[in-house]
Sequence to fold (197 residues):
Amino acid sequence: MTTALAGFALGLSLILAIGAQNAFVLRQGLLRSHVFAVCLTCALSDAILIAAGVAGFGALTQAIPGLELAMRLLGAAFLIWYGARTLLSAWRGGQVMPTGQAVGSLRTALLTCLALTWLNPHVYLDTVVLLGAVAAQYEDRLNFALGAMTASFVFFFSLGYGARLLAPFFAKPRAWQVLDVIIGIVMWAIAAKLLLM
Fold:
């Protein structure tokens, strides 16, 4: 049980930082748009990556020299585009985004969610490399992995469904503009960090 708690604590601490994926889940939660599907996609993606890390997949990124650079460049390009799109939305502003009804298609939401997850090299560093390395120190790696996976499910569903508590604040157009500016800046900051690594 203590091994599972260690995995849960480490997994939770790694995903608490505001990043592209978390900002997207927060936005979807505020819009109440495809929340379950987005949260499930994020949590399942994390579970797959954690399982790969615990199984020793992190060695593959070290075995293929150009893989890490390609992942960083692709991830940075996507984040620059997504950040620009979000900042443009903030610039246009002026309208209240509807809450309580799906905005955009499920397909678009899931593709964006998958891109923000799988094109982000930090996700691989956190889940595959770091969690995999720490799990290797435990005799019961399965329980460690299950603890970390549980943390992902708890976090993403709490973020997605907990966002609705902020809905009254986001009834104002200015609040959405501020959120879009913050998300756009976070996306560009992560992209810059990836390019400068």
